[in-house]
Design a protein that fits this description.
Length: 761
């Protein structure tokens, strides 16, 4: 007897799965993973996904039938469904929210629709040119003889033969028209003539939008002795452990080792997922991968449009060894692709905080979810970093993860020399030029003199330029958020970085009416202007949120820097990670202080990681790199440790503090965010929730308190933090939290309150 009922995940923010009746005519195709149309609520039709079919008649009055199944092939497989369910349980969100994050919305028209939508993907086509017939060698000679009087035409035919390596024994290969034109330096009209003469013919072929069929495949590079030791240690660890941490200094060849491990998996017919924290990084690594693995390598991130995401999704589903993607390079959302057969998941720069999604739900950590994903596939996970997160290193120390260390850079290149520049002293001695210390200027000057390149790193957080009254210190703030407005020189306006609100620059102080308004602080834009004044002959580029809005802007800036069309590149976090530039020798960290002075238990760890990461860009080839760290506090512990690239002591200090003050990995944390447009109501509800939670958790509850930014887009915010011992049962804890919140939501007036939960914040 076929199953009669289906539990369905719907893209609605309501708890649970929804049971529908399977009508007789759909009973054959209503299986887990297929997309269905159902009615939800009074009128609305939603697309959802079946996660389970069964015969248990649910105890509800009106059981609705599934309306339609537009595609009998499952859109997602059971491993994906299991991952969604795990994410929704662990991160305390709805499966519908996970589904929305996971499935490209083109497959899945947002929320309600009144008519069934069937998404059709239009493949992209491009014109290719080929020989019109399988000419013999003699025929070809005759053709070329005849074309002697038309040398341009002869050149095209010759270019075609050269590019395809055609001989009468081989097949006729089509090649891209654009490539042929470029190679023969001729014009489309001449190809037309040859087509008319019946020598060439033109065809339209569907091409993968994202891969270049002319990619060459290079053999793998030989691993160095050290790398080989590390490689063997990893593969040995994998015999006993599912997760291995590769702790390798910057430029030790971690990527090279990944490539060898990938090769091994591909040979076994397995898929590989390679995750990076930042889109900017995928640009360089994808080329390195495609060089070896060719067009089975795909890349996935949020800058792709819907249609492109659908194509990537389909190519991951495609099990054909030649046309399917078997290696995916992607950012955190790539773990939702429809993998069926993963052998290895690599999480590079595993310490990076961008792996955690903060908003909207699912608020998942992609490294931890990747480990779960791998285990669903019975695959291995390799996490790598030059400065691992305290949590991961701890897991390695206690033997939960395998640990492999690579302590030297590839090719015996030394780690960069760290120079600490004391800004306080330089200001006192009046040696500062704009925001630059003499040490930094000397280093930049020397590099430019040797025709080498420079990166200047400016962390954006808290250091954006703003306007201030010089009389009374008044600073214009956002009307909707509790933050200072940032001054943007190019548009000459003030902008809120939290909600996008903009305003003209006031002519007078809003408090004392004085007209003495001045700009303060320095962001990347300011640095760019000022460094241009100091080094008028250098070409300066900038990479930050403002210069990378368009899809290809990352690639363009990186390429310009690689091709040395930029001497000095200024940037934010984006340039700190994984990039590999041959001619880059000097890195400047303009302000290390504001990295440290951030009220978060991870601030010191993060500042060390960031400094190590940025400095790791310097001197990766023959030349010895230099890193100048500008700080007003040269005795700071993290900076002293940086001097010696002393990760291990950084770890020891941090793990000690975490243990003393009871922070992860010694406890788990769950953060509850409450938002309300009325401050008094917010305080009231937050207090109710806080004391209710205290009756269960006692001293484990911290807050409620205002976060650093206490109001965003008209919403006042308070947070409550719950710290739970590792040994306590997590499931029960979460249940209590959910029940407590449910009680609060029933209190009169709580309808205008918004509550979100962040697990492992
Ligand atoms: P990491 O990922 O640890 O920062 P990479 O893999 O990017 O290090 O290696 C740093 C540089 O050294 C890269 O330019 C890489 O091409 C080169 N390199 C590393 N290992 C080898 C090798 N075995 N053979 C040739 N070049 C290598
Ligand atoms: Zn705002
Ligand atoms: Zn004033």
């Amino acid at each position: 007897m076929p199953d009669k009922f289906a539990d369905i995940i719907l893209p609605v923010a309501v708890k649970g799965r929804f049971t529908y009746r399977i009508p007789e005519h759909l009973s054959e195709i209503a299986i887990p993973g297929v997309k269905v149309l159902v009615q939800f609520g009074n009128k609305k039709i939603y697309s959802g996904i079946i996660c389970k079919t069964h015969n248990d008649k649910p105890d509800i009055k009106t059981l609705r039938p599934i309306i339609e199944i537009t595609d009998p092939l499952p859109l997602v497989n059971d491993k994906q469904l299991n991952l969604w369910s795990w994410i929704s349980d662990y991160y305390m969100c709805f499966e519908g929210e996970v589904m929305k994050a996971a499935v490209p919305s083109a497959f899945f028209p947002e929320g309600e629709t009144t008519t069934p939508v069937n998404y059709k993907y239009k493949p992209k086509e491009e014109t290719f040119i080929k020989l019109a017939a399988p000419f013999s060698d003699q025929e070809l000679n005759e053709i070329l003889d005849k074309l002697k009087k038309a040398p341009k035409q002869a050149e095209i035919v010759a270019a075609y033969l050269h590019l395809t390596g055609y001989s009468s024994q081989s097949e006729i290969k089509p090649i891209r028209k654009s490539l042929l034109l470029k190679d023969s330096k001729s014009s489309p009209g001449i190809i037309e003539v040859l087509v008319k003469k019946g020598i060439l013919s033109s065809v339209s072929l569907e091409i993968g939008r994202l891969t270049d069929p002319e990619n060459r495949i290079e053999p793998l590079r030989k691993l160095s002795d050290n790398q080989l030791v590390a490689y063997n240690s990893i593969t040995n660890s994998f015999k006993e452990k599912d997760i291995v941490l590769l702790h390798g200094v910057t430029s030790s060849g971690k990527t090279e080792i990944y490539i060898h491990l990938i090769e091994e998996q591909l040979k076994l017919g397995k898929q590989v997922l390679y995750m990076l924290p930042e889109i900017a990084l995928t640009a360089q690594i994808i080329l390195r991968l495609q060089r070896h693995f060719g067009p089975i390598t795909g890349v996935y991130h949020s800058r792709f449009n819907d249609q492109e995401r659908v194509e990537i999704w389909n190519r991951v589903t495609d099990e054909n060894l030649n046309t399917g993607y078997r290696l995916i390079l992607g950012v955190r959302s790539s773990l939702f692709l429809p993998f069926s057969n993963l052998g290895l998941v690599i999480v590079d720069e595993e310490h990076d905080s961008s792996y955690k999604q903060h908003d909207p739900a699912p608020r998942y950590h992609a490294r931890d979810s990747a480990i779960m994903l791998a285990s669903l596939h019975k695959a291995k996970t390799l996490i790598g970093s030059a400065s691992p997160s305290v949590e991961s290193y701890h897991n390695a120390v206690i033997g939960k993860y395998g640990l492999t260390e690579l302590k030297e850079r590839f090719g015996q290149i030394k780690l960069p020399e760290i120079i600490i520049a004391n800004t306080r002293e330089a200001y006192r001695k009046k040696l500062m030029v704009s925001h630059f210390t003499p040490e930094l200027l000397t280093a930049v000057d020397e590099a430019l003199g040797k025709n080498e390149q420079v990166i200047l790193f400016q962390n954006r957080r808290g250091f954006s330029p703003y306007v201030e009254c010089s009389e009374c210190g008044w600073i214009p703030t956002c009307v909707q958020c509790a933050v200072n407005l940032t001054y943007h020189k190019n548009i000459n306006r003030l902008v809120c970085h939290y909600c996008g609100y903009t305003s003209a620059i006031p002519s007078k102080c809003g408090s004392c009416n004085s007209s003495g308004l001045v700009t303060r602080g320095f962001g990347t834009e300011k640095i760019e202007d000022e460094i241009k004044i100091v080094f008028p002959n250098a070409t300066v580029g900038r990479m930050d949120q403002d210069t990378t809005r368009s899809k290809n802007s990352f690639n363009k800036i990186i390429k310009s820097f690689e091709e040395h069309r930029i001497d000095i590149l200024i940037g934010t976090q984006m340039i700190s990670k994984g990039l590999d530039f041959e001619n880059l020798t000097v890195v400047g960290i303009l302000n290390a202080d504001n990295l440290m002075n951030y009220p978060d238990f991870r601030a010191h760890e993060r500042s060390f990681q960031l400094m190590e990461q940025v400095s790791g860009r310097a001197g990766r080839r023959q030349k010895h790199g230099k890193v100048v760290i500008q700080t007003s506090d040269p005795d700071n512990k993290m900076i002293r440790l940086m001097l010696r690239h002393d990760y291990l002591n950084m770890y020891k200090i941090q793990i000690g503090e975490r243990s003393t003050f009871n922070y992860p990995p010694f406890c788990r944390m769950i953060k509850i965010n409450l938002k309300h447009k009325d401050r008094a109501s917010l305080n009231n509800f937050a207090d109710i929730l806080g004391s209710d939670l205290r009756t269960f958790f006692g001293k484990r509850i911290l807050g409620p308190e205002y976060p650093i930014i206490s109001r965003i887009q008209l919403w006042y915010i308070k947070t409550i933090l719950i710290k739970i011992e590792k040994e306590k049962p997590l499931v029960r804890t979460k249940e209590i939290i959910m029940e407590t919140i449910a009680r609060l939501e029933k209190v009169k007036g709580a309808g205008a309150l918004r509550i979100t939960i962040d697990v492992d914040p």
